[in-house]
Design a protein that fits this description.
Helices cover 25% and strands 26% of the residues. With 279 residues, the protein is an alpha+beta fold.
């Protein structure tokens, strides 16, 4: 007899978890130099010019040495200021975006640590100092009164808070501050001994510059954004959305697939045996 029926087979794929792809790691000194050469070659030439002591456009190991020693050293302001003033328009934007990219800046740090560790230490120069004779300075902001029959009392004048365009900061004995909502802006960011003026803060949106020490009026980021720092200390960073942890993982979901396959069963009976064939 012929019997027609169905066989149901289930194909199940379980949800899998995959981690974010990790960048290529710099493991050797050769890798470090190669990574920096490649980055400099891919970015505007103004960055290479500032990375060279003679401001040439060559991209050599000496270029990488100076870049790394300066970036990881205590005196990176001159290099940052050179990039900020030499790179203009789209070139500056391209450099800022590249040097604030988390993956790029992380690899640059690793590469530069390898390079700096292979170089002899940079000699430090100690400036000759002279000791001046002490002078008496009157401090009108502090008044002290005392006599034989009373306890000394000290009264301190409250600091002056300036409004918009008012003076602030500097190295005076009683420097002024700014009222709430204003920030002190210095004309020469590298010299805060001279007074600045109180100004409204600049608020940047996503992808716009923020922070840094080379700009006379560094911007802050809007709420819910963070200022991603630059690889070169002193250069502005960029306002970005806070990134998830590097260990963040993506979960990929799959559907349960049910497949139905038709089949035919044929039973043949003959003495003394019975045979069943399924196709």
């Amino acid at each position: 007899s012929n019997v027609t029926g169905t066989i149901t087979s289930a194909v199940t794929t379980f949800a899998t978890t995959t981690a974010e792809p990790s960048p290529t790691h710099t493991e050797t000194l050769f890798d470090g130099y190669q990574f920096i050469h490649d980055e400099l070659a891919s970015l505007p030439i103004c960055l290479t010019t500032c990375a060279n002591k003679d401001h040439s456009t060559v991209n050599t190991n000496t270029t990488a040495n100076h870049l790394c020693q300066t970036a990881l050293g205590p005196n990176s302001f001159d290099l940052a200021e050179c990039v900020f003033t030499t790179c203009q328009g789209d070139d500056l934007s391209t450099v800022l975006i590249a040097l604030t990219d988390y993956t790029v800046s992380e690899q640059l740090n690793i590469a530069c640590e390898l390079i700096v560790a292979s170089l002899p230490p940079v000699p430090t120069t100690t400036a000759e100092t002279t000791t001046a004779e002490p002078t008496s300075i009157s401090t009108p902001s502090i008044v002290t009164t005392a006599d034989a029959n009373s306890t000394a009392s000290i009264s301190v004048v409250a600091p002056i808070l300036s409004g918009i365009n008012g003076l602030c900061g500097g190295s005076g004995l009683n420097p002024s501050g700014c009222v709430d909502g204003l920030v002190c802006i210095y004309q020469a960011p590298s010299d805060t001994t001279l007074p600045g003026t109180c100004q409204l803060p600049i608020i940047s949106d996503q992808g716009q510059a923020c922070g840094g020490k080379v700009s006379a009026h560094p911007a802050s980021c809007a709420t819910s954004l963070a200022c991603q720092p630059n690889f070169l200390p002193g250069l502005p960073g960029l306002c970005v959305k806070p990134k998830p942890s590097p260990t963040h993982k993506k979960h990929i979901k799959y559907k349960l697939v049910i497949r139905t396959v038709p089949c035919t069963t044929t039973t043949t009976t003959s003495a003394p045996y019975s045979t069943t064939t399924t196709a």
